[in-house]
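Project standup — Tuesday

K.O.: blocked on the structure for the chain from last sprint. Re-posting the sequence here as requested.
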Amino acid sequence: MLYDALVLLKSPVAGSMEHAANHTLMQGYDTSMDLTVEELRVLCVLVEKSFTTPEQYPLTTNALVTGCNQKTSRDPVVNYSSSQVDAVMQDLRTAGWARTVRVTGSRTNKHKHVVAEKLPVDDSQLALLAVLGLRGAQSPGELKTRTERYVGFDSFDAVVEELETMAAMPDPLVRNVGTQPGQSQDRWVHLLGNSDESAELPADSAPPAITERSEHANDRSPATAMTSSAAPDLLGTANDRSVSELAETVRRLERRVAALESVVRSQGLPIDAD
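H.V.: unblocked you, prediction finished:
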């Protein structure tokens, strides 16, 4: 089934089927939030620019790449290529988060988000989600300052109220992760997809480090001890990264296959369960 779907994705009719799949997926709100890191960055840049530079929105691919790779107001800083951004946009279109359009008088296609068709949020809540997606965990005070170019909140309490509203939704969009040492305000994170949530947990909730010590450890030189202990850590980091990238690729393919299945079912055609 997966092989057949991948072949179909490369066929000449894939474009028209993708459009139909988008229409099917957009009926009502869809709160299945499994955005990858790349999808989240591209989507949040589209949201940001729709607020802060409406005269330049929708965005060309080049403008979208520049927005993703900004050195300011971004955490982490990335370096996406235009081909990467185009690939991510294809996945966002398939999942119904964004569209690519041809604006009158323009010779190039431009990209826009359609988050309002996926989530029951207003402009204030959308602005908060975008800033959280672009900059990670933040306090209500930081969010108030950083959303001024988007919507502008009247007070600190107004920010907290919107955050609590989103946290209380049947499918929560944000979460309060508490304070960290030296901080006076709780911090909030988005729940739109993949993120390093362990980094946002209070320090005392982090799992204890596990170390192994040889009974002859004292016989080793400092250099030898450092090399032997660091190597597993580096290997583990590389393996974790590879697994994470593979998992994100699988999630993208699953979403695209599900979209195509919806179109096939709408045409009354059978789907091979195998």
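K.O.: great, moving the ticket to review. DSSP finds nine helices and four strands in the chain. The chain has two domains: 13-120+247-261, 123-203.
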